[in-house]
Amino acid sequence: MTGPSGPLEGQPPSTELDPDILEELESWGEDEDEGGSGPPDRAGGDDPGPDADDEESGHQPDGSSPTGGGAVVVVGTPIGNLGDLSPRAVRALGDADLIYCEDTRHSRKLLTHAGITGASLRSLHGHNERDRVEEVLAAVRDGRTVALVSDAGMPGVSDPGGRVVAAAAGAGLTVTVVPGPSAVLAALVASGLPTDRFVFEGFLPRAGKERRRRLAALAAELRTTVVFEAPGRVASTLGDLARVCGGERPVAVARELTKVHEEIWRGTLDGAEAWATAAGVRGEVVLVLGGAPEEAEATVDDEVLAAAVTERLSSGERTRGAVDEVAKAFGVPRRRVYDLALAGRDPDATRTRPPETTAGMT
After folding, report:
1. Number of domains making up the chain
2. Domain of 244?
3. Residue 157 has what DSSP assignment?
4. What is the per-residue pLDDT for 334?
């Protein structure tokens, strides 16, 4: 890994970076593998707690916005490969009056890699973001430039930062973004699945009715879907997706994107479940699920389908087999039969589904 190719604007030429710092930076994700951390733009790892102390240096570089007022600058950071830190991101971080970050220890190492010293760091993570909002807004109103970063990727995308951006925008304050690496787009493009229309699901609920509802929505989704998952739950999630979507649905499993051990597995949900179970997936993981096939509207009534699937379930048949057989017998989409089976167990399951998840359903 290497840093910027030359000295930063307004800074002396950088010296060779301490190899120990590079090694520690590159092992962020690897260090958490045993603990079940998930993908980059926050992959299920624990939020740093209150013990991630703020760091105040007193150094206040000129970080005013072009209009002379303060601003919130959302800065994308590498998801694994330090070479992806852009020159613009380095300038934004170097010019900021304050940098709010998930973990000051991680961000201090990133700044050291970029040749930035004396920066004023404050923590902003899942435990304290709500309390930090007014503090950030006050700094911006005072004319200060506040940079916002997460440990990896873009703040606000399955990461802290969304509340701050929403509050700043709502207050009419300047919010700008310095784009950076994206686990969502990297996995999507590398998957080989359609990219013209896609949705980002984030993390699925771990269990319960809400998980079942979200899985049913994914089964009906016509667009390619990007899902984050922690490595320890990848095999079980692929199995759940296979049961509701059908094992033939295409999927790509991307792990350790941009890192030395990057790997992308492509195939069907059935094959992916078997692979993940046997291989024991490690590292930061993104799932890319192919959309449901377009199918014609069936004319058979819901009551007929519900009765048929209920009869099979009552006789002890497993849900997947019952749904497959009923769908085949009546020539209707299996996702429709699955929804009816789900509603039979939980009458609120389909009635409470958010409107946007039913678009394109047949």
Report:
1. 3
2. 184-289
3. S
4. 87
